[in-house]
Please model this.
Amino acid sequence: MNEQHRPTLIVITGPTGSGKSDLAVRIAENLGCEIISADSRQIYKDIPIGTAAPDAEQKAAVPHHFVGILDLDEPYSAARFESDVLALLPQLWKSSPYAIMCGGSMMYIDAVVNGIDDLPEISPENRRAATDLYLTGGIEAIRSRLRLLDPAYYDCVDINNHKRIIHAIEISLQAGVPYSSLRTGVKRKRDFDIIKFALDYPRDRLFCRINRRVEAMIAAGWEKEAEKVYPQRHLNSLNTVGFKELFAMMDGKMDRQTALARIAKNTRVYAKKQLTWMKKSSDIHMLQPETALQTALNIIADENNRHHPM
Model:
């Protein structure tokens, strides 16, 4: 690689079920580069079906990083992901000027692309305190606590999003100052180029794909996978769509048909959130599924020529 050329990180994102993984593999095969998974659940061991992790064929075709490397009880964060990825990228760029980051975990992608505020690691005690408050008092209890700890953030947060409220409480407890005082919003400069892609499916087609994928994951043995990790159901790594509904079924709180329908519905709801996040990014190249590979390769070549003219 020419030393004067900046390397390129290709980001393939988009809603769950849109075919990101397959496209990432095909682009990586064409460019001769490796893939970084930007998925906050695929990083864990023992749950490949429920997280739709890259399969053996995909991993054999292209090396994947950050897939199935953590035990379920090991905490992880977007800040740690940013640090880990920035440490890995120079190694990947020794053999190719490109690397691909593929996934739908919005905070993880934002952390690498834009940087993340320097927030403290949360102790088990503070994490447990915030979670217990929610479990015992519901969303009203955590709203009240956040209003006391950080009224400024309370005024701007989605007060129906319990995960964001809990996160803010954890940070405020850990840091001893309001979470909002630590949020700089400053975008960090990167010493590499970034090109973002997403597959552009009409919503009805996307939702059909999601429904079919849930059926395929169940057929592949998702229920048995959930049974194996059921004793660890209290862990944050398993507090995610699919496992929550299957655990509720195992607890006798809903029948199987209801649980499977709820998984599909809640996955569609999550996909809507991902689409909303994508709309805030004006720099994502939207690809038509039928021509996605060739269009992406053309854009990558054009960007390379623009940044590094002969």
